[in-house]
Amino acid sequence: MAVNLINSNDTTISQAGDEIKIEFSSTRNKQIDDLENNVEGLENDINNLEAYSTTETRIGTWINSKPIYRKVYQFTTPSTENSWMPLGTTGVNIDTIINFYGTVLETSQNKYNSINFGEGSYYIHTAIYAGNNRDINMIQKGWSSLPCVITIEYTKATD
């Protein structure tokens, strides 16, 4: 014979012999499912915080509740000096750039410099211009045709 140990609006616990049975109402089951989905989403966000990829990766949520994405670009610095030159486009309709950073490998000294850096009469600066598929542009003197990596964190206009 089954005995109800607890019977509330959303939970029933009963015992029949050695077997204890716990039942949740459909509302309570949905709350549990929602909580499990939220935990899974948070685990994905935490895992993506340290993910760097040339593929767009969601890494969090911005202050306006829009998703934040990260994407890594690999380029070569322009061979032309003292003139803003496009490295390529982001390929994304960016709403807000939250952060962008990167390095240039000075191959002759095996030394990494920031993408916005000056040393003596040499310099390198990077800018991302507004608009759809935002252009990544660079101006440099003394560091032509060097490998560089730029990471951009942004929200999309389409979200």
How does this structure look, described?
There is one protein chain. With 159 residues, the chain is an alpha+beta fold. It has two domains: 3-49; 57-156, Immunoglobulin-like, CATH 2.60.40. The chain is built from one helix and twelve strands. A hairpin with a 3-residue loop joins β1 and β2 (11-16). The protein is elongated. The mean pLDDT is 82.
Give the helix/strand layout.
Blueprint: E1 3-7, E2 11-16, E3 19-24, H1 26-49, E4 57-61, E5 67-76, E6 85-89, E7 94-106, E8 111-114, E9 117-119, E10 122-128, E11 135-141, E12 147-156
Task: Summarize the structure in short.
With 159 residues, the chain is of the alpha+beta class. It is built from one helix and twelve strands; from the N terminus they run βββαβββββββββ.
Task: Provide the descriptors you would attach to this structure in a database record.
single chain; 159 residues; Immunoglobulin-like; 2 domains; four-stranded antiparallel beta sheet; 15% helix; 51% strand
